[in-house]
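User: Here's a chain of 335 residues. Predict its fold as tokens.
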Amino acid sequence: MRGWVVGESNAAATRLCQRLVRGEPGPSPVLLWGPSGVGKTQLLKGVADGYRARKKRVLAITAEQFLRGFVEAARGGGFPSFRQKYQGVDLLQIDDVQLLLGKARTLEELRQTIDSLIEAGAQIVLTADRGPNELRELGPEISSRLAGGLSVEVAMPNVEMRQQLALDAAERIDLQLSKEAARALACRLIGGGREISGAINRMALLHETFDTPLDQRLATKVADETNRLSTPPVRMSDIQRAVCGVFGVDSKTLRSDKRTKSVTEPRMLAMFLARKLTGNPWSEIGEFFGRRSHSTVIAAHRRVETLLASDEPTRLVAGELGETIRRVEAALRSA
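Assistant: Prediction complete.
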């Protein structure tokens, strides 16, 4: 797949899809799950292209298309033609299957479709923005089929992968981006491949229009602008809840006067994210996180910025700093 970057977050899913492309026997159905922007749809396309290259019949649809087709068939009595569409396919792909949650009749039709295709030896690949435990409303029958196949997470890329994605995106548009600027963007930007590609396009436009240097300063500016435009509004209580979940501390402890590393690190990160994601005044953030002074919040914010700008990875009690921030942001998006 052109432009595909393999790393720890997608290595297992990539290996599985490569096996499917080669026609090796594998589990069916397969569920690829993870947040938006991590490349699930690109993996689907790669598998579909591989099947077509081997002259296999492929049907690639979205869950919305499956639902719309089912509803039209139910209203017009056209179930024979609806079901015939799925007969004889070698590969069925359904994107965003979580959109079918709670739609009992449609799910029963999907179960029958899955069963008939598996019996015929077809490969089924589904995607969702959440894992099997959060897809139980698909019903026990489909959940059982998923348990009998294989579910693989496609997680958010880590800093190294994001840096490479930025460099690749820049290369595709002939933009001379340094590794330092790419790293600054990777450390700062919220999101996955789509957001990185969009940020690179914006950097290119600013560079061309204003002759702005393609340096770390521009990368940081563009990342912050992109984050403000793409991140839904959050409250400080949301940030507190997400940070506590990632670090395994309770909110009372986070806002206490304890100064152990297991408390000061999540508190520092929570104050940094509160400023970054809400833009609230320093004093308001300090008041929320245990009546701390505005200077304490400023110091925490600067500390995290300094650590993110460093070439050396910073380890926190919950893991590497940049990866920990992305875990918190992922928790905020799924809240």
